[in-house]
């Protein structure tokens, strides 16, 4: 499993209905994309619990070929054509879990990025994070790491608009999940 996200920060006066319409008309295009575990079409609105307007899709890839096919194909080129080429964050997957509310349609997401502290054993730190139980209301969660920056990310989808865990909060506009069942549960090592 590979995790990936790009976040496009938009002007403070940007009409976020443009993003809502974009997802409503194009979101379904990845509903059967080969190699994709899931894609959460995420948005934050300035003043609604966020300091910025942004469009920030988050992906869990079941196969590296799927991720590469998207990045070097027409799907990502559409983002580049409309918004310019964003920086794409990429993390190696450590763990995936379906949550207590796995059958629900997610309406919110949290992304918590934390540095792996200096002086701690990295394997022990990531194992504790990977094995942590999910809170009620969680639809699904993934833990991944960027070993270049020693940054761990926990991404969680929620069935409720007010997630009980810390992190950057997003509204889920659509969820494409053609390979969600192929995302292996538990640790990835």
Q: Can you walk through the features of this model?
A:
Strand 8 (138-146) and strand 9 form a beta hairpin. The chain has one domain: Alpha-Beta Plaits (2-Layer Sandwich), CATH 3.30.70. It is 20% helix and 38% strand. It has four helices and eleven strands. The mean pLDDT is 96.
Question: Main sheet, how many strands, which sense, barrel?
Answer: 8 strands, antiparallel, barrel
Order of helices and strands: EEHEEEHHEEHEEEE
Q: What name does CATH use for the topology?
A: Alpha-Beta Plaits
Strand order of the largest sheet: 1-5-3-10-7-9-8-6
Task: Kindly provide the radius of gyration, computed on alpha-carbon positions and rounded to a whole number of angstroms.
Answer: 16 Å
Give unreliable regions as ranges. none
Task: Indicate the CATH class.
Answer: Alpha Beta
Kindly state the number of beta strands. 11
Proportion of residues in extended strands:
35-45%
Question: Keywords, please?
Answer:
189 residues; alpha+beta; 11 strands
Short description:
By secondary structure, this protein is of the alpha+beta class. It is 20% helix and 38% strand. The mean pLDDT is 96.
